Amino acid sequence: MNSAILITYDKEDAINEAMGLCDAAGYQVVHTITQNFLKKPKYGISGGILEKLEEIAQKLRPDVIVFDEILKPSQNYNLASVLHREILDREALILEIFENRASSSESKLQVKQAQLRYEMVRAKEKVRLSRLGEQPGFMGIGKFEVDVYYNDIKNRMHTVKAKLEKAGKQRELHRQGRKRQGFKTISLAGYTSAGKTTIFNKLTGETRKQSKELFTTLSTTTRRIIIGKEPFLIADTVGFISKLPAYMIEAFKSTLEELIYTDIVILVIDVSDSLLNLKKKFASCMRTLNDVGVERDRIMFVLNKSDLVSNYEIQEKVKILNLKENKKWVSISAIAEKNLKELKNLIKDIIENQGFPNYNTETTMEFKDPYGN
Ligand SMILES: Nc1nc2c(ncn2[C@@H]2O[C@H](COP(=O)(O)OP(=O)(O)OP(=O)(O)O)[C@@H](O)[C@H]2O)c(=O)[nH]1
Ligand SMILES: [Mg+2]
């Protein structure tokens, strides 16, 4: 396993997630440095911390240095020139995980597109700097090469986009086919590791990989299930995560598009999360669903992992997430197979009442994601 020094900008909860991301990307964290949230323009960290980091990197010789934040291309460059190590920011780290995990041809294309966009942002910065004549040979290449490089990325993006569009059309045909057959559709959505695949497996009898690692699922799987006497199609989807730039959601849009055309979106929430994490992840999910174009009244909420918390705690969390007045929620434990019947009943109820006269879907509280995702 490769080693990493991890720089985090947040409190306890975020460190665990950052460690999880490193682990999923195959890096063993040998040292962690926490710095307050304030952004420092040149390096993304203060001079004092940079010195400390230099010293530790000398001693521990990690393969990479991970910043659990999104760095500007210039910050990345400045850091790499001082530390003589590969610098991975949160985006690059997530891209590595996606690259290792993507197995279907469509998810591979999506990852490719996200990678190219990541490079594109950097290429633009290179072009800008070389035009200003500020940093000739920025990142080791001259002005002419910068233009060639930039155009090359543009061309490659074009090709990937065309292929993805074709895959998207195929998907659309499938969707229409299912609609013609009169199937109602359900999609499982939610933060990575909330337990979507575990629920999917329990409901369908499938054996898709479920794991505590982040981003276990990268492509959508759809299966037929019977609830009551009615057949449904249920889809398991890629998980969400906060602090992701819009283009990454955009890159996965064709997968996430399943969510737009589905009758019910089940938002899976890990009810065993700390209050801080629970709120942060919930806000991030609601924001992503909104960005993708899912209306609120198609969302039902499943509080999973109820085996890990008391009933009292569940009730408290329901109140905090403001689901109390919204009857479209149920707490379950996929692992302990608790309340799976209630979950099916709720799905059936919602489908029967679609239009939802019995459900109060008003949500008075605004959830703000501190990271803007
Ligand atoms: N205690 C407990 N653990 C659960 C429950 N459901 C799922 N898990 C665990 O949570 C972890 C994540 O489960 P997954 O089903 O892979 O989660 P996911 O939402 O599909 O995650 P991604 O595919 O990574 O987005 C696994 O280690 C599961 O065993 C539950 O009801 N109780
Ligand atoms: Mg999964």
Describe, in plain words, how this protein is organized in 3D:
With 373 residues, the protein is an alpha/beta fold. It has 3 domains: 2-98, Rossmann fold, CATH 3.40.50; 103-160, no CATH class; 183-352, P-loop containing nucleotide triphosphate hydrolases (Rossmann fold), CATH 3.40.50. It is built from 12 helices and 10 strands. Strand 3, helix 3 and strand 4 (86-89) form a beta-alpha-beta unit. Helix 4 packs antiparallel against helix 5 and helix 5 packs antiparallel against helix 6. The protein is globular. The two termini are 31 Å apart. 40% of the residues are buried. Residues 355-373 have low confidence and may be disordered. The structure holds guanosine-5'-triphosphate and magnesium ion.
Q: Regarding CATH, which class of the largest domain? A: Alpha Beta
Hetero ligands: guanosine-5'-triphosphate, magnesium ion
Gyration radius from CA atoms, angstroms: 22 Å
**Helical/strand content category:** alpha/beta
The residue ranges in which pLDDT falls below 50 over 5 or more consecutive positions are 355-373
CA(first)-CA(last) distance: 31 Å
What name is given to the CATH topology of the largest domain?
Rossmann fold
Q: What is the residue-averaged pLDDT?
A: 85
Spell the H/E element sequence: EHEHEHEHHHEHEEHHEHEHEH
Work out the strand percent: 15-25%
Largest sheet: 6 strands, mixed
CATH architecture of the largest domain: 3-Layer(aba) Sandwich
Strand order of the largest sheet: 6-7-5-8-9-10
> How many separate domains?
3
- Total helix count? 12
What is the CATH homologous superfamily assignment of the largest domain? P-loop containing nucleotide triphosphate hydrolases
User: Rough shape?
Assistant: globular
Number of strands: 10
Overall helicity: 40-55%
